[in-house]
Design goal:
By secondary structure, this protein is of the alpha+beta class. It has a domain of 36 residues. The chain contains one helix and three strands.
Length: 66
């Protein structure tokens, strides 16, 4: 089996489905994957605004980092 590319999703982000275009003896196809189990997990996402000044950004990073 050979991985030819990716369709959707985001590498390293298990909260969204990702599709891989593969080729093997059966031909070319897309395999979709989303790691899910029976348990629920909660995630907190922190996004630093892009329009901060350097000083405000440093203060934000320091506050978030603890």
């Amino acid at each position: 089996m050979k991985r030819l590319g990716r369709e959707g999703g985001k590498e390293g982000d298990s909260s969204v489905e990702i599709g891989y275009i593969i080729e093997d003896a059966g031909g070319r196809r897309t395999v979709r994957y989303r790691p899910e189990g029976k348990a629920n997990e909660n995630f907190q996402r922190i996004v630093i605004p892009t329009d901060l000044t350097d000083q405000a950004r440093a203060a934000c990073v320091k506050a978030v980092a603890g």
